[in-house]
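Course assignment 3, question 2. Fill in each field.
Student: A.L.
Task: Predict the tertiary structure for the chain below.
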Amino acid sequence: MNSGNVTPTPHLRKKMREKNFNMQDVINVIENGEIPKQPEWNEEFSQFRYVVKGKDVEGVELNLVITISIKEEMLTIITGF
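Answer field:
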């Protein structure tokens, strides 16, 4: 991740504690994971939501739900599971 901002939501922080993963794991999924299906439009926030599937740094499966704002150069990580 070379530029822009990465913003974790409070919900993601909760899931990180519950599922025992950290931001290094999140970054690993974003950098090395895949987007297996088309993004879904979120009418409430007027943006697309993506599922990114990958593995944490220990090789355990970790999926993220993210949004990307090109205009603000920001990636928001909504949740992880």
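Instructor remarks: The chain has one domain: 5-80. Strands lie at 5-8, 40-42, 47-55, 61-69, 74-80.
Grade: pending
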